[in-house]
Design a protein that fits this description.
By secondary structure, the protein is mainly α. The protein contains eleven helices and five strands. The structure holds zinc ion (ZN).
Length: 264
């Protein structure tokens, strides 16, 4: 039994020491214990599951609109749009996501919440950035490592009366001490990369700022689901504004034709 537990503990730690530190597109060091191929499989499997539980809208004006926006964004991000699957889901929850395995999903609720194509481009650009910067892989790796720490604590305090309290503390520590600040790092990084992607694709980067202002206003008593993982904080708006000059320059130098995707 103990041997089994130790194996469980050692596997991620061993992998941790074997997998080299990687670097994100902004030059941040990352610890990744899962391969791109495994992440793509996970992403594709979740996307299939979503599609079977809520079949996406096909051949509608909304699909054409989201494809129209995604194409220049993917090109600007250095991706091949024909390799990506882009779907619109009938769901009033304002949400959008991109998954490893080249998948993009946009809820009708998010199309409704964003007031123009630039704002939705900011959302999709931000989501593509999460995938390109391998944030999902980092989170999976962090979970593997924090599970290993919890397992170690369980072994260390096993049988002692404070074991459950100690386990709870480690659990909370993993969630609030590491994972949340980490995700704030991910959000800032996705904002920065996403802003460059949308500008390079020909969208007005200022729309990223107005997106978060729109999001902030839509809070009320029941804020959109997207806001629980993407708080529209003043820090977020300040950071975007600080990167605006560079983004505008990118927009001017890279645009050959103005993107016109009209919101239906
Ligand atoms: Zn995000």
């Amino acid at each position: 039994m103990l041997r089994l537990r130790l194996n469980f503990l050692l596997t991620p730690l061993l992998t941790l020491s074997l997998v080299a530190c990687q670097t994100s597109p902004t030059g941040r060091h990352q610890i990744i214990m899962i391969s791109d191929a495994e992440m793509s499989q996970l992403g594709a499997a979740s996307f299939s599951q979503m599609k079977s539980s809520n079949p996406p809208i096909e051949d509608s004006k909304l699909t054409i609109y989201v494809e129209c926006l995604s194409r220049p964004l993917l090109l600007a991000a250095g991706e091949n749009p024909s390799e990506w699957e882009v779907k619109v889901f009938k769901d009033a929850t304002p949400n959008a996501f991109a998954l490893p395995g080249k998948k993009i999903g946009v809820h009708t609720g998010m199309i409704g919440l964003t007031s123009n194509s630039g704002q939705l481009a900011a959302v999709i650009g931000h989501e593509i950035a999460h995938v390109q910067a391998k944030h999902g892989a980092e989170r999976v790796s962090l979970n593997m490592a924090s599970q290993a720490v919890q397992q170690a604590t369980a072994i260390a305090v096993n049988g002692k009366e404070y074991s459950s309290a100690a386990m709870a503390a480690v659990g909370l520590g993993a969630q609030y001490g590491v994972i949340l600040p980490y995700s704030r790092t991910h959000e800032s990084e996705a904002d920065f990369i996403g802003l460059k992607i949308m500008a390079k694709a020909g969208f007005d980067p200022e729309q990223a700022v107005s997106l978060w202002q729109t999001m902030g206003k839509s809070g009320g008593s029941k804020p959109p689901e997207f806001l629980s993982t993407h708080p529209a904080s003043s820090t977020r708006i300040k950071q975007l504004s600080a990167a605006m000059l560079e983004a505008k320059k990118l927009q001017r130098t890279n645009v050959t034709s103005k993107v016109s995707c009209i919101k239906p």
